């Protein structure tokens, strides 16, 4: 007997996720924050984690953390739902609002998990593909598709194209359709201040904003994401979530991080400065195209991308993300913005390899 014959039909063909993390000297493949965080910030987080009693179950809705997040965004705690990373919240949103007859609309190339989670939750995923050259969204086509959908996800800034969503587009989705609209702001701290749409949630019950501590906060390992949404959405997610998915250590670490977030501002500023330098230097290499980015990564179209990526890994111990096989991203590599030294190393190595490969 093959156990896979017994699997739920919608899950046929799914395989364990392999991020292809070959251990490397420099890892710029997963849009993490590779900067050393300020000692005062780390001390506060570590002290909070050390104080947590481990013998008790966590507070299911993370009351204290939820309160701090609500204060951060000027909403009531009832507007906030925490999750085990943004990933858990994305899955739970599709589990709650998707299903047969409830379509999801996305704008690929975007975060591949949207389509994956939709498939797992037996939700039709309708793709409104971006312009292949500029990655801009066809707003009329998106609005038309959203009229037939339960849920729309737009990503601001988008992974992996780096561009922000125009607030006017979100306004049209809210005004001209009945869909729930999720703005995924995993990278918004790297965009100009004022780019977040979280402040609009209280006036728009169908608008939801996803945030994470995995990027700007440098805490991808903690697994803490949250949603700012209407209390009815939050209550539904609270009803279906794994009750203890956000553990006591994550709650304590995240609370200390949120309270001390001002200490991270210089780190984010440095990443933004470095992003500009990285984009400029990569764009100056013959044959390489770089798109403008408001996130902590840049997308580059590189001659011989797949070979260049493998040689970066094998000869220079530098890991970047290969999207050259992905629809709409042919020949593209995504390079996270690292520290100054890491960025210099990737610029040097990539310049030499592109010359050799073209
Ligand atoms: N949204 C986007 C656009 C992402 O790129 C990611 C992580 N790569 C996530 C959500 C989820 O992040 P996490 O689960 O680490 O919070």
List the defining traits of the structure above.
358 residues, alpha/beta, seven-stranded mixed sheet, four-stranded antiparallel sheet, binds 4'-deoxy-4'-aminopyridoxal-5'-phosphate
Describe the protein's architecture and organization:
With 358 residues, the chain is of the alpha/beta class. Helices cover 37% and strands 13% of the residues. The chain contains 11 helices and 13 strands. A 7-stranded mixed beta sheet has the order 2-8-7-6-5-3-4, sandwiched between helices. The chain has a 4-stranded antiparallel beta sheet with strand order 9-10-13-12, with helices on one face. Strands 1-11 form a two-stranded parallel ribbon. Strand 9 (289-290) and strand 10 form a beta hairpin. Helix 2 (63-73) packs parallel to helix 8 (248-259). It is globular. The model has no long low-confidence stretch (mean pLDDT 97). Residues 31, 85-87, 111, 155, 159, 184, 186, 212, 214, 220, 225 line the site of 4'-deoxy-4'-aminopyridoxal-5'-phosphate. 4'-deoxy-4'-aminopyridoxal-5'-phosphate binds at residues 31, 85-87, 111, 155, 159, 184, 186, 212, 214, 220, 225.
How confident is the prediction overall: mean pLDDT? Answer: 97
Estimate the global geometry from the Cα principal axes.
globular
Strand content: 5-15%
Multimeric status of the protein: single chain
Distance between the termini: 51 Å
Helix/strand-derived class? alpha/beta
Number of DSSP-assigned strands = 13
- What Rg is obtained from the alpha carbons, in whole angstroms? 21 Å
Number of helices: 11
Low-confidence stretches: none
- What is the H/E order? EHHEHEHEHEHEEEHHHEEHEEEH
Note the main sheet.
7 strands, mixed
């Amino acid at each position: 007997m093959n156990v896979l014959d017994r699997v739920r039909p919608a899950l046929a063909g799914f395989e364990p996720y392999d991020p292809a993390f070959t251990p490397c000297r420099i890892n710029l493949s997963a849009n993490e924050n590779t900067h050393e965080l300020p000692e005062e910030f780390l001390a506060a987080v570590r002290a909070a984690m050390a104080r947590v009693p481990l013998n008790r179950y966590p507070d299911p809705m993370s009351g204290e953390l939820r309160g701090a997040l609500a204060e951060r965004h000027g909403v009531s705690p009832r507007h906030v739902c925490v999750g085990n990373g943004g990933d858990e919240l994305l899955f739970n949103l599709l589990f709650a609002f998707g299903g047969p007859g409830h379509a999801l609309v996305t704008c690929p190339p975007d975060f591949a998990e949207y389509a994956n989670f939709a498939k797992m939750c037996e939700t039709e995923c309708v793709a409104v593909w971006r312009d292949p050259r500029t990655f801009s969204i066809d707003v009329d086509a998106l609005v038309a598709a959203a009229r037939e959908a339960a849920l729309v996800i737009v990503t601001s800034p988008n992974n992996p194209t780096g561009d922000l969503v125009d607030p006017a587009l979100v306004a049209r989705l809210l005004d001209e359709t009945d869909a729930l609209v999720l703005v995924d702001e995993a990278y918004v701290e790297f965009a100009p201040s004022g780019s977040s749409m979280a402040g609009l949630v209280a006036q728009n019950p169908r608008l939801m904003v996803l945030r994470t501590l995995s990027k700007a906060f440098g805490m991808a390992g903690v697994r803490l994401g949250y949603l700012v949404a209407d209390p009815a959405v939050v209550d539904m997610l609270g009803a279906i979530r794994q009750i203890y998915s956000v553990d006591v250590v994550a709650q304590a670490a995240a609370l200390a991080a949120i309270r001390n977030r001002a200490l991270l501002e210089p780190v984010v500023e440095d990443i933004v400065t470095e992003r500009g330098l990285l984009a400029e230097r990569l764009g100056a290499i013959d044959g390489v195209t770089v798109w403008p980015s408001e996130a902590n990564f840049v997308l580059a179209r590189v001659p011989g991308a797949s070979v260049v990526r493998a040689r970066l890994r094998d000869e220079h111990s530098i890991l970047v993300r290969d999207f050259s096989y992905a629809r709409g991203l042919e020949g593209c590599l995504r390079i996270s913005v690292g520290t100054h030294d890491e960025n210099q190393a990737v610029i040097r190595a990539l310049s030499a390899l592109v010359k050799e490969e073209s």
